[in-house]
Amino acid sequence: MLKEFQEFISKGNVMDLAVAVIIGAAFSKIVDSLVNDIIMPIIGAIFGGLDFNNYFFGLSSNVHSATLADAKKEGAVFAYGSFITVVLNFLILAFIIFLMVKAVNNLRKRLEREKPAAAAAPPPADVQLLTEIRDLLARR
């Protein structure tokens, strides 16, 4: 069983997947920063100058705070602003991945078009010899 596990781990696809997960996690932090630090403040300014993450309403009568963190301490809250931020993160990430896949597919198509046509394989030696003999006889 240990040997099978070692073979599974050493396959190229598993290693590629591991690298992709690690890079994806790092890329996710970049997208989170883009949404939270650049896009959401702009949207918040359009919708009244509030932090979009702090859009919520309390589900209990004990919730009276203006910030989501304090409201969560007071009771249950419906944090729709945080949900919208996460959905926006997902849409931006999905769009970027779409653009990357599209670029790779276009590159593959371009490389296939530019690939020179494979030269016809030379005929076997005996066929080549017979062709030369035929051509010599035809000249006589």
A few lines on this structure:
By secondary structure, this protein is mainly alpha-helical.
Overview of the molecule:
- By secondary structure, the chain is mostly helical.
- Helix content is 72%, strand content 3%.
- It has a two-stranded antiparallel ribbon.
- Helix 2 crosses helix 4.
Q: How many strands, what sense, and barrel or not for the largest sheet?
A: 2 strands, antiparallel
Percent strand: under 5%
Strand order of the largest sheet: 1-2
Tell how many strands the DSSP assignment holds: 2
Radius of gyration: 32 Å
The CA-CA distance between the termini, in Å, is: 75 Å
Supply the number of helical segments: 5
List the helices and strands and how they pair.
Blueprint: H1 2-10, H2 12-46, E1 57-58, H3 68-74, E2 77-78, H4 80-114, H5 125-139
Antiparallel strand pairs: 1-2
Helix pairs in contact: 2-4
List key phrases describing it:
5 helices, two-stranded antiparallel sheet, 140 residues, mainly alpha
